[in-house]
Amino acid sequence: MTGVLDEAIKKAAIAWISTGDGPAYALWCMPVELSLAVITGPGEQYAPGLADAKTATVRLRGDHGGLIVSTEATVTRLDPQGPEWAELAPQLAGKRLNASGTAAEVAARWAVADCALLVIAPAVDTLVAAPDLPAESAAAPPRETPARVATRKPFRLHKVVRR
Fold this sequence. Notes:
8-stranded antiparallel β-sheet, globular, 8 strands, alpha+beta, 3 helices
């Protein structure tokens, strides 16, 4: 069953990651061997609590877009002065869409802005894959946000006749 996890990680561009009892967030990521590299922090993707977490739940989708793997994972925050950061940050910055500047400039901005570069390593012993995945949908209703605006019914100049 670890073959499914290995393939899902290799093809991952987005992972649904949650910490504790919190909601899962869709985060863009980069495969690193059998782990995922994720950046979060000021000016980057929003993942509350992930930077300080020691564990997280990771859900990965398959080619058909549906859930194929769910597992617990360990979260390791890399030190901006360390050699792992120097190796991974420019690679991840190169995959960052719509980045302003070169990969080296983006990685330097991450270090200065106190962004968290995380390596998320799945635990094989907590792996749940088909056919053990839940049959019901894991979709949740939209979260409340000040960005959502109530809309009115569209204006009709003439009476619409129902048939």
